[in-house]
Amino acid sequence: MQLWLIPILPLAGFVINGLLGRRLSRGLVSAIAIGSVLLSFAWVLKTIFGLGDLNSRYVEHYYTWIASGSVNIAADFAVDKLAVVMLLVVTGIGSLIHVYSIGYMAHEGGYYRFFAFLNLFMFFMLVLVLASNYLVLFIGWEGVGLCSYLLIGFYFHRQSATNAGNKAFIVNRIGDFGFSLAMFYIFKNFGSLDFTKVFQQAPGASEAVLTTIGLLLMVGACGKSAQLPLYVWLPDAMEGPTPVSALIHAATMVTAGVYMVARSWPIYVHAPSAMNVVATVGIATAFFAATIGLVQNDIKKVFAYSTVSQLGYMFVGVGCGAFSAGIWHLMTHAFFKALLFLGAGSVIHALSGEQDLRNMGGLRNKIPWTFLTMMCAAVAIAGVPPFSGFYSKDAILLAAHEHAPWMYWVGVATAGMTAFYVFRAMFLAFFGEYRGKEHAHESPPVMLAPLAVLALLSLVGGFLFNIPQFLSGVFPAREAAEDNSLMLISVGAGVIGILLAWFIYVAKPAMADSLASTFGWIYKTLYNKYYVDEIYDAAIVKPLVGGSRTVLWKDVDAGLIDGSVNGVGTRAKDIGGVLRLLQSGNIRSYATWVLFGSVVAIVALALAGIGSTGGLR
Amino acid sequence: MLAAVPISWFLTLSAVLFALGVAGFVFRRNIITVFMSIELMLNAVNLSFVTFSYHRQQVNGHLYAFFVMVVAAAEAAVGLAIILTIFKNRGTLNIDDVDSMKN
Amino acid sequence: MDVILFLAFAIIAVVCAINVVVQTHPISSAVSLVGVMGSLAVLYLLLGAEFLAAAQVIVYAGAIMVLFVFVIMLLNAGAESKKGRSFTAQLLGLPLWVAFLGLMAYFIQRLYPQSTRVHFGGFKGGGAAEIGHALFTTFLLPFEVTSILILVAILGAIVLARKEMD
Question: If pLDDT is split at 50, 70 and 90, which confidence band does A491 have?
């Protein structure tokens, strides 16, 4: 099946564009970049059709990467139904975003660099999805983190962009530390990192071991998928170009954590306390991020907090045992969140760089296509039936209710807030009077076509792709409790959110400001993101940097290490200075020293027993 | 035969001559005397070579002593030439004054 | 008989050696050294090294010592001056020398208490024929190398001792 072609094609695109892109024309660069991703997508389709029903896992073994003692890691790729879903999402949406980027980045510098990094990202993400052991998955994990850093800091002449890139990478690293510890622990207990071997032995291991592994893996997932407390990098990651935000920070990279937890389901189903933690972290993050998203003024920041919140929903899904529901939401979220970001990018492009919602308004007549497609995404994310978001979110909320009813009610409240802030953004941007100064122009077709495709997927993707049915053989079976009253409540919450947003921002525009001043300090806290960044800075960053600077740099590095190295030199000089006195130039003293040496030699030989028996026959 | 000499006597004689040569080398200040002490040491070693050759009833020791003699001759020639040069350049035969290699 | 011979010439050798070291004027040391070499030649005869005894007299006493005497007379070296300047030699020299001699004597006694005994005629392989045979078979390479060595020594001596070209 040549699975390796799927990631290698984008890698080839990266190499060609990276090495030669500077000299190639923009058209050629685009063709190479998009061609490689489209070919990869085509190959994914061919693989799916070639593999038949995919009920069993198809593994391709390439070579043994590490064989050292008891450590035996192979470079394998594997495909099963779960991987198929991820592959289609990654390559499909990846292709659409590549096409969109031609239009969006048309006026930007560093064109070839952008596409090279984008292709590199695709490579690593595909390695992550196709991996059949934890270490290869970790390679993809780290690689997408690297590409995220490179792409967030794409406008590297902006200090804020480079800072955001650093922040993303460093916070991710903390999560990766947890992942590494999990891998060590897995290897210690199961003797292998291969999925098949580990999951075979998982039911037999003790619950304490499995819980520890599950929690450590969750730490890694918190870093990569921006959950509490490691979510702080995602809003800042909006410094990158909008296609990057759409692809990496909405559809693919941030879902890697969810994918990894879903893949590790044999570990989690036997460690209920770990699953509970996963679900709790998910629901807390969902609620928390939604509250912050209510009052943000930057359109991309609204959607960034929305992503954090929706990722929380996915973790609630997998944490409550509804793995396929979580993956379903992953897919639908990829559709409508990518669309929201790309649409925001279209708006920003139309307004020549304006991102503040307060300077927008009344755009629905000026950029109608963008408006229509974004509306599709908005109703999807709000959970309005029969669009895609409704199906997946409903499945998760039902599972949450079964697991712990309080999670269901918090989830409903969050759904209401989700609908509210998304439609707030829509109303502020597209309705009312235009408050800005630019001349808005519609985006070119190359940008609108992907928007249209994604809009279609957002609307019909729910009932067209019944993921739980598709994945029924992969995850353990569970009762899908169809409770209509719960469903109605969650839909109702969404509708209330939309109506409230309409009321405040369209019917009575002045009400927003009066509400803000009434609830002054609440508004201020939410607007400043609960001051989390400032708390982290004071509590963690400053002591760490200060400690490194004074203790580790001045005392240890300069003082101790340099001191001992220099000290060796000084000691050698001193000893040399003493030995120099031996060279008096006086031949007689030299002769005396020779005599001394020979006496010592004789004594040494005697002690060594040379002179004990007869030396000669 | 009771008139025979034990070889330890020969070896002791060799050691004594060698030690005397060392004493001359360490304690005398005239270059030429030092040189002659070196020759004395070489002779002592020759004696011990020949003694061991007798002990093992082989002729090899004689050959070693022979080569020592050859080398001593060559060394004497060159060494005395050097002493002549030193005397020409420094005007002294005191070994303590030839210390330009100090430090 | 052999014992008396040995003792006589051994004592002569030691006395002359002490004289070499003790005398202040170099010419006296040189003459004493000749005496040492002569007595050593007799001892070689006792050990059956006929060729070597002859070589000792001819080469050592006859050529090298003559060379020494020539150089002493050429340099007009007088008696040695009294000033000395080696602290190390004076301080460490005597104890070390005593230790050296003591150790050597001790080990010789321990290793060879009363083993072989030397008597005149006990070793018949020291004649010219045997020496020549060994020289041109087993020791051919050192023989050739020493020829070169002598050549180099001659050249060196000539270069060092000639007059400056003006």
Answer: confident
Q: ipTM value of the model?
A: 0.88
Q: What local confidence, expressed as pLDDT, does residue B43 receive?
A: 95
Mean pLDDT of A328-332: 89
Which residues lie below 8 Å from residue A542, measured CB to CB, with a gap of 6+?
none
Cα B23 to Cα B33: distance, rounded to the nearest angstrom: 11
* Average of per-residue pLDDT across A116-131: 91
DSSP state string for A236-305: HGGGS-HHHHHIIIIISGGGHHHHHHHHTHHHHHT-HHHHHHHHHHHHHHHHHHHHHHTS--BHHHHHHH
Q: How many angstroms separate the Cα of A340 from the Cα of each of A245, A333, A383, A469, A504?
A: 10, 10, 15, 27, 22
Eight-class DSSP state of A585: S
CB contact under 8 A, C85 and A611: no
Q: Give domain limits for chain C.
A: 2-78+88-126, 127-166
Distances (CA, A) of A550 to A298, A555, A558: 39, 7, 10
Is residue A89 within 8 Å of residue A331, measured between CB atoms? yes
- What CATH number should be reported for the domain whose range is B29-90? 1.10.287.3510
In this complex, the residue of C17, C83, C118 whose CB is nearest that of residue B54 is C118
Annotated domain spans of chain B: 29-90
| Backbone phi and psi for residue A338, each to the nearest 5 degrees, phi listed first | -60, -40
User: Is residue A614 pLDDT above 60, yes or no?
Assistant: no
Q: C90-127 burial, b if ≥16 CB within 10 A, otherwise e?
A: eebbeebbebbbebbbebbeebbeeebbbbbebbebbe
CB contacts of B20 in chain C (<8 Å) are 14, 17-18, 20-21
The torsion angles phi and psi of C33, rounded to 5 degrees, stand at -65, -35
- Quick check: A242 pLDDT over 70? yes
Between CA A498 and CA A409 the distance in angstroms is: 18
- pTM value is 0.68
Residue A188, phi then psi, degrees to nearest 5: -65, -40
Structure confidence by residue, pLDDT tens digits, C28-72 = 999 999 999 999 999 999 888 899 999 999 999 999 999 999 999
Q: Which chains touch B (3 or more CB pairs under 8 A)?
A: A, C
In degrees, rounded to 5, the angle at the alpha carbon of residue A57 between the alpha carbons of residues A53 and A63 is: 135
B-chain residues near A616 (CB < 8 A): 52, 55-56
DSSP-assigned letters across all residues of A463-484? HHS-HHHHTTTTSPP------H
pLDDT of residue A451: 86
Q: What is the DSSP letter of B30?
A: B
Q: Which helix (H) or strand (E) holds A67?
A: strand A58-68
Alpha-carbon span A173 to A233, nearest angstrom? 11
Helix A388-403, helix A272-293: angle, nearest 10? 130
Asked which of A172-176, A246-250, A261-265 is least confident by mean pLDDT, the reply is: A246-250
Structural contact between residues B62 and C126, judged by C-beta atoms closer than 8 angstroms: yes
Task: State residue A541 phi and psi, 5-degree precision.
Answer: -70, -50
Q: Nearest 5 degrees, angle CA A316-CA A318-CA A319? A: 60
Q: Which CATH class is domain C2-78+88-126?
A: mainly alpha
Q: Which residues of A touch B52 (CB under 8 A)?
A: 616
For position A612, what pLDDT does the model report? 54
